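Q: Fold this one first, please.
A: Sequence and structure below.
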Amino acid sequence: MSHIDGFPMQRRLAWVVYHSLTKELHATARLEPARELAMQGWDVSLIAPGEGGRQLVRGVEVQCVSMPGSFFLGQVVFHLKVIHLLLRHWARLDLLLFHQLSAPWLLPLRLVRLVTRRDRPLLVMDSRTVPMIVTTAKDRLRAWFFRLGNRMANRWADGQTAITPGMAEAVQIPSEQLWGIWPSGVNPESFAPAQAARRWPKPEEPIRLIYIGVLDQVRNLMPLSLAMERANAEGMAFVLSLVGHGGGMRELQEFAAQTDGRLCVLPPVPHAQVPEVLAEAHVGVLPFPDQERLRVSSFIKLFEYMAAGLPILATEIAAHTDVMNGKDYVVWTDDASIEGLLEGLRLLWRERASLEVMGRAAATDSQHW
């Protein structure tokens, strides 16, 4: 925090997010850091798509800006409105933070600095994802904007941040521009009640596995479900709950209908209810394959599992090993195949007497994230 004549003056940050913060999928990764920045003395203005102007979302003020549903038209209209809003407050801003899809629209605002002869606000881009599936025209257009945003930021941004070192390498952020790595994390206090409420399985009871997140094919949830059924056929006892929504939901629901309740596909829940859902489980699962977009990410669900006191079954990809390598609360699978996941389930079954001890270790480690 800077000072003038002995009086503190808040640094002012405008943070532009191109997806809604009134929905659950991405909200935590934006709202919680904004809350923490405010606690550290920043005046944070979150700007995101939505209706209703200023809203209080989980105790954080968000300036909602309306946008059409069409991808390209939506981006044009949203960012033109955002630029108009930013220019009204330009002289007060110290830093403008944004993500890849916003870069082509916001980086040209460097010209305003030249005209006004100010060195503020600094323009900083944060890279947290790369396009995963490119099949439709919309996917291709979106991927093109991502690449354009990264190229423009590498030339014109004052600085950049990334979710992992792998992400910084994947989008080729110049070392002199990389301000820092900003992984996902969690507020451990919010998940502590899950630890107290959990009842660990008795020897004759099944181990309850859980996954919370996007239910699409790339998340490898069908191979996990098939591996679980094979494990049960071998005499083990697992129940798997998949909580969320996505393109693979219907296929998973159709398969679940054949499992006599061993696989449950459930709709997403409000973020405040996630600890309650995790309290009913015994092991959090991360069956992701070794693909670039997954490899270079940092998954909030991993830290939520840990904070809720859950042991974890996971594939050995960088996004997981960077956090849990050498930890005694994780059971690694050989790979993301059905056979690899099945072998992980066999190992987990052999270690079932240690689940409570593993869960305590996970909760302790979550304090570092």
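Q: Good. Now the second chain.
A: Here it is, same layout.
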Amino acid sequence: MSELTYITHIVREVNKVTERCGAIFLYGENIDYGSRLSGLARGLTVNPAGRIQNVGNCELTHVGVGLGILLDGGQATLFGKQLDFMLLGLEQACDTFNFIRAYRPPDTWGSFTIFVIVCDQGYQGPHSSFNGAGDFASLINIPVYCLNAADDAAGVVDRHFASPGFRIICLSQRQFGTPTLQTPVEWYSEDDSLFRYRSGDDATIVSLNFALRDALEMDNRLIDSGVQSDVFHMNFVPGADLTAVVESCRRTRRLVLLDDSKTVTKFGDILIAELGQSTVSAEVLSFCRRGCRDEDYGANEDRLIPDFERALRFIRQA
């Protein structure tokens, strides 16, 4: 049996939910022909009560339809080719959903999930490289999950896709053809805002967005140098309980953050503020991109490259 790739694993997990969830409406541009959203929708299936529907090019309407189905108590799932296009639906996602939250109790809601590709593979240019999932979480005040490995993908899809409420689930196009990352999860929080993959007392490593592979590679190299670390992945979940990471930092006194998004504001800053409020004395080393230079908005490698040697020196310092 051939090894599952990142994208085929995720589609398989989605199908496990659509097989059992009853009437559900799956829709998107080119969802049922052509490239099938660069492979995101290839192999999608639904139960007899569900429907897969190709729709035209109007993201503002797409998001409005999904929220309308949620408001009516139904189940809707929008598949988007790139996060850039979801900017066109922000008015509905923010204002319409705010209206729903203000005037309809959550126990009357149906489900609306957006699965969307983040074009992070590089050399795509300014209209196909928006990498700011955390900003969506902040603007709309909803959970935004970035799928990295086999276990977190399976868990997030099983526990949140087709569940009541509104959320966005992001996928990394850079990883589509790579073998699915099989590092087992040791622990995860109730809201899936945090996943812990490894344990150690020398440092706390936290990845955000799609930086888990880099975090685990860093940890592998640190292990070779005799350093044992807690390794967490943190999703963009507003109001998340960060106690597990805070207590890890209290023990290790060293925090290394890896965030390959291109936002100016960072969810990792929330963790740093939480450390200060908890009077945890921990040194912080951050590998991230805060926005871009003008020339970086053109076609380029579009890649965060963490400095492993710098991380080792940081952790070993007195």
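Q: Anything worth noting on the second one?
A: Residues 90-103 form the longest helix (14 residues).
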